[in-house]
Amino acid sequence: MRPPPTPQDDQEQLEQILAQAAKAMRELQEAQTRIGAVTGVGTSADGLVTATSDGHGAIISLKLDPRAMRLDTTALGRHVTMAVQEAQRAAEQQTRDVLSNLPHTQAMPKPLGASLVRERVEEAARRLLG
C-alpha cells in the first residue's frame, strides 16, 4: 500500500503541470507565428488561374492569365473556384502539419479532478482529527 500523498507531493505535481503548461503555451505561440507564415497555392487545371491562401484560409492573391478573360463567366468561375479550393486545401494541410508537431500540447496531463481535491481534504481532516 502506498503512503498517502503529502502536500509536498501535490506541490511537485502542480509545479510539473505548470511547467508543462508553460511549454505548451510557448509551442502554441510559435505555432501561431508559423501558421501566420503559411501560404497555400492552387492553380486551375489549365493554369489560367492561380490563387494563394494564408494559414487561416483567406485568399491573399488571385492571378488571372490574360487568356482566362476569353472564357465565359461560368467557365471562369469554375477555374477560380478550383484554384481557390486547391490553395485553401494546401494551406489547411500545412496548418495541420504545424499543429500536429506540438508535443507538449498533446502530452498535457489530465486536469486535476474534484475527487483528487476531495481525497486531499479528507486526508488532511483525518490527520487533524487523529
Automatic annotation (TrEMBL):
It comes from the Bacteria. It comes from Nonomuraea diastatica. The keyword Transcription regulation does not apply. One of its GO terms (molecular function) is DNA binding. Keywords: DNA-binding. The keyword GTP-binding does not apply. This is YbaB/EbfC family DNA-binding protein.
